[in-house]
Automatic annotation (TrEMBL):
<dbReference type="GO" id="GO:0008168">
    <property type="term" value="F:methyltransferase activity"/>
</dbReference>
<dbReference type="GO" id="GO:0032259">
    <property type="term" value="P:methylation"/>
</dbReference>
<comment type="function">
    <text>Exhibits S-adenosyl-L-methionine-dependent methyltransferase activity.</text>
</comment>
<protein>
    <recommendedName>
        <fullName>S-adenosyl-L-methionine-dependent methyltransferase</fullName>
        <ecNumber>2.1.1.-</ecNumber>
    </recommendedName>
</protein>
<dbReference type="InterPro" id="IPR011610">
    <property type="entry name" value="SAM_mthyl_Trfase_ML2640-like"/>
</dbReference>
<keyword id="KW-0949">S-adenosyl-L-methionine</keyword>
<dbReference type="InterPro" id="IPR007213">
    <property type="entry name" value="Ppm1/Ppm2/Tcmp"/>
</dbReference>
<keyword id="KW-0808">Transferase</keyword>
<dbReference type="Pfam" id="PF04072">
    <property type="entry name" value="LCM"/>
</dbReference>
<keyword id="KW-0489">Methyltransferase</keyword>
<dbReference type="InterPro" id="IPR029063">
    <property type="entry name" value="SAM-dependent_MTases_sf"/>
</dbReference>
<comment type="similarity">
    <text>Belongs to the UPF0677 family.</text>
</comment>
Amino acid sequence: MVDTAPVNAGVERGVGTTALLVAAARAIETHRPDSLAADVYAEHFVRAAPASAGWPVRPHQVPDGDADPLWGRFARYFGLRTRVLDDFLLNAAHTGGIRQVVLLGAGLDTRAYRLDWPSGCVVFEIDREGVLAFKHQVLGALAAEPKAARTPVATDLRADWAGALTGAGFDPTAPTVWLAEGLLFYLPGAAETHLVTTVDRLSAPGSALAYEVKLEKDLLAYRDSPLYTSTHRQLGIDLIGLFSREPRPDSAGDLTARGWSASVRTPFEFSLLHGRGPLPEPNDALAGNRWVFADKPPS
Ligand SMILES: C[S@@+](CC[C@H](N)C(=O)[O-])C[C@H]1O[C@@H](n2cnc3c(N)ncnc32)[C@H](O)[C@@H]1O
């Protein structure tokens, strides 16, 4: 195990633990025979943090397989999400010609290390300092080499984060592809609105954005769902307790009003597209999840 004692506090408490949850799901996905995404670094994060060291990182460590609400269906959801958003980012870079990437609430996302970026790409990773320090330590011990210029930006997305990003070398005159994966549910409504406004302000024509939201009415409606109760019971992570309870803004509407085009999709559409992934079920905590893909028109 990597010695992360001085820095693991960032992922051992509160919303930081959710980054470990997603990492464990990606580790399992990596080793599925029908894997949708491969992340060889994910299991190292899980093993390095005492809070998660005993969690499964291989399919055979999940005795109930896909019937397990947490390490089966929910983990597969994260695997599907990883694949869909990998494809979105790579398409923006290779087809859209974008060379600047910003991962908002990057957590333990290793896309800078594992995706085949075109030359000249820079990847900014925004998260809280403790999460980034833990990530740095684990990847450093593995001597992992990024495949793009990677710049961590330690800041709180509830505050004014644009200064930290531009101070780290972000260029607002170059088109950017932005990603907010598994982030916005944790932010107060005003912080989400500020995030969208800031993304728009910092986005040159030809930029793109993908983000994940939950329909507001579903935040509490499924509090007794197998997905939430198993995550709480097995890991001690109370997702509902970590989510912001504030009214959610209509960010897709805001972007449209600002001249972006936005398409709002359900994850289930992508399960059908890939022939694997979660499908709707009763009392489903995933029912309100939406993945939004937005483009700012080229000038
Ligand atoms: C569920 S994890 C998702 C991480 C990553 N995007 C992924 O999908 O693997 C949520 C991440 O958002 C970060 N986060 C939540 N609130 C934040 C805030 N106010 N400022 C910066 N980061 C925040 C957490 O630290 C955590 O790493």
